[in-house]
Design brief:
Layout lengths: L2 E4 L2 E4 L4 E6 L10 E6 L6 E6 L6 E3 L7 E6 L4 E6 L8 E8 L11 E6 L1 E6 L1
Parallel strand pairs: 1-10, 2-11
Antiparallel strand pairs: 1-3, 3-8, 4-5, 4-9, 5-6, 7-8, 9-10, 9-11
């Protein structure tokens, strides 16, 4: 399963971006989907995840209340709406599909990863 993340860019602090994750070759409609990020010199960290039917979500404390994850099972896409962005949100953002259908923040549970998209928040 090859996932493609898009929608990154340069934005001022307080601004918004909407990231998208898509896969045109294989459906991941029965998998949980997650977003992770990696800043320079830091380990990849969990951001948000949504379960297979979109009913259950989980967020990192650092983004709770500012970011919203969603998915469209028909279009085989997932999205991360990021509001009130802060300079510390600057990172490469990756989407991934888990081996399971329920939410998980554990990186090792995610088997399918896509190329990342750069998000840069200026102060």
């Amino acid at each position: 399963v090859q996932l493609q993340a898009s929608g990154g860019g340069l934005v001022q602090a307080g601004g918004s971006l909407r990231l998208s994750c898509a896969n045109s070759k294989r459906t991941f409609s029965n998998n949980a989907v997650g977003w992770f990020r990696q800043a320079p010199g830091k380990e990849r960290e969990f951001v948000a995840t949504i379960n297979w039917n979109g009913v259950s979500t989980l967020y990192a404390d650092s983004v709770k209340g500012r970011f919203t994850i969603s998915r469209d099972r028909v279009k085989n896409t997932a999205h991360l709406q990021m509001n009130s962005l802060k300079p510390e949100d600057t990172a490469v953002y990756y989407c991934a599909a888990a081996r399971r259908s329920s939410v998980t923040s554990t990186t090792s549970e995610y088997a399918y990863w896509g190329q990342g998209t750069q998000v840069t928040v200026s102060s």
